[in-house]
Amino acid sequence: MNEFPNMIFVYVATAVISYLIGSLNMAILISKFHKSKDIRDYGSGNAGMTNMLRTFGKRAATWTFVGDFLKGAIVVFIAREIGKSLQMNLDLAYIAALFVMLGHIYPLYFGFKGGKGIATALGAMFVLNWIAFVTIAIGIAPMVFIIKIVSAVCLCGASLYPVLNFVVLFLQGRSFFGEVVPYTVMSLLMALLVFYAHRDNIKRLRSGTEPSFGRKNK
Fold this sequence. Notes:
The structure is a single chain. By secondary structure, this protein is mainly α. The chain has one domain (about 5-205). It contains 11 helices and no strands. Helix 2 (about 25-35) crosses helix 4 and helix 3 runs antiparallel to helix 4. The radius of gyration is 18 Å and the shape is globular.
């Protein structure tokens, strides 16, 4: 697809649709329709897996993670396939990844107050670059049970992803300025979005007051 107006329309449509789907926050949906409560009224007030675990238990947390992970993965996968069929110059998957995360963090349907975007980001990252994803998972996941602070582990993973994405794309011999650089920049924006969503966690980490993994909400 070489017509500039058509390309812009596809990019914008991808961003809007990804954001709208991302706004379907699983923690809020499960807590509202299964528990008849709003997870944002409990614990940290965050609509994500960790707060669901502390508030409603393992089953609710598991379904939250699976739903948000699949949301990110499916949206990005479909965007990539559409981009291939339209022969887009820029991989639509990266645009979809950024905006599905944005929708999760600032959901249109729930007053723009959602989660931190980690599960959705993981699903998106898995489809974008599974090699980088698996490398991070193997190296970072055990840290949850060692340091027992989920936010710290998430921030470490977010920091590593743009670097590993760059390395993998470069070693694959992809076009440096046509693919490696723009896709690395997009993955860096994803990481920055994770850091921004965790800004309160970062303050608590610096002050030593960040809660550990497995603590129950009262």
